[in-house]
Write a structure and sequence with these properties.
The protein is of the alpha/beta class. Helix content is 50%, strand content 14%.
Length: 367
């Protein structure tokens, strides 16, 4: 997914200046050990185009650096005394832990000292801190989390996957617009096709919110495919799939279990007889590619779209590779000024919606 960023990094066509990114070194299940290793991998791969700031307990961070025998330290370290645990209340942590690694990392972004923040910490805390500290983009009703799903054709963006369990039609409509811009920038989709997740393909299918959302998309200028069902997500019918955060989060958690299920089933079947062993040996290259496609670490993390900044929320159990890829995604978003494009598109869509609504009303009176 990050090949395009590497090419631009090498040629300097996209971003002549380095993108400075803050990493919450204390976030995630494994803390600095994984984050530092991921940071080192990111510097090695994107070093000419990024500059990383590790925020957290400096003693622990530097111990990890020493473990990797870094002779020249390519990373800036900012010391903090507090850490947000998974059991902490998101809002309480924001109010009471002003010296946490997450708070300080986002404060650097608020001051303009970094362009983006990556954290594998408490998802609720990351969302609350980002929203309270950076605020929403003008015109955005609700920020949303976008996750990447592999498909038969390429990949698709599922939005929202947890930030908004209850939505109105206008929220879902904006999710589609933000998801499409993300797909354009990160996945190089020229005109992303947007699908609305529902219980049937007909425009009348679904609950009241889904039906009203379909109407909004249908009267807009976006590339709207129509309703899609759950079985359509992986076949690549659409580049962006819109749903509320309740449904999206269930889909995401289910998807995370699929790779492990296939691995355990394969191990169970292999070894039953000689033919199974031989078949498994011959299929190893294929299975490796399938495993890579299902591996969440390939996609880095989930951006929180709609905030006045750039924040990537990585999986709590992220590997160093996942952290590295999250840094790459953050750099792409910053270099391509994703938020400027979201603001512009929302403004244009708002004007278009107003025009379409007026036309509908005029037509009613004419008849």
């Amino acid at each position: 997914m990050l090949d395009d960023y590497k090419k631009f990094s090498e040629t300097g066509q996209r971003n002549p200046k380095k993108v400075r990114i803050a990493l919450d070194a204390m976030g995630g299940d494994y803390g600095p050990s994984v984050v530092v290793e991921g940071a080192i991998m990111a510097v090695e791969e994107f070093g000419d185009s990024i500059e990383l700031v590790l925020v957290g307990n400096s003693r622990m961070i530097e111990a990890e650096m020493e473990r990797h025998r870094l002779r020249e330290v390519p990373l800036t370290v900012i010391h903090t005394k507090e850490t947000i645990s998974m059991s902490d209340s998101a809002v309480k942590a924001y109010r009471q832990k002003k010296d946490s690694s997450l708070y300080v990392a986002l404060e650097l972004q608020k001051k303009g000292e970094v362009a983006a923040t990556v954290s594998a910490g408490h998802t609720g805390a990351v969302m609350a801190h980002a929203l309270l500290m950076l605020g929403r983009l003008p015109g955005v009703l609700r920020p949303a989390i976008a996750a990447v799903f592999p498909t038969e054709k390429d990949k698709a963006v599922l939005i929202d996957v947890g930030a908004n369990p209850d939505c109105k039609a206008q929220h879902l409509y904006q999710f589609g617009i933000m998801g499409a811009i993300y797909a354009k920038i990160v996945h190089k989709k020229a005109n992303p096709k947007i699908g609305l997740l529902s219980i049937g393909e007909e425009s009348s299918k679904g609950n009241e919110v889904t039906v009203n959302t379909h109407k909004l998309f249908s009267h807009s200028s976006v590339n709207f495919f129509g309703n899609i069902e759950g079985r359509d997500i992986l076949n690549g019918k659409c580049d962006v799939i819109v749903c509320d955060g309740f449904v999206g989060n269930i889909m995401l958690k289910f998807a995370e279990s699929v790779g492990g299920f296939f691995r355990s089933q394969a191990k169970h079947q292999v070894g039953k007889n000689l033919i199974s062993n031989l078949g498994a040996f011959l299929m190893r290259p294929v299975m490796r590619r399938v495993r890579e496609k299902l591996d969440y670490s390939e996609y880095g993390g989930a951006p929180l779209l709609g905030i006045d900044g750039i924040c990537i929320i990585s999986h709590g159990g992220s590997s160093p590779k996942a952290i590295k890829n999250a840094v790459g995604v953050a750099a792409i978003m910053a270099a391509d000024k994703i938020n400027e494009k979201i603001k512009s598109e929302l403004y244009k869509s708002g004007r278009s919606d107003l025009s379409n609504s007026l036309n509908v009303e005029l037509n009613k009176h004419r008849h």
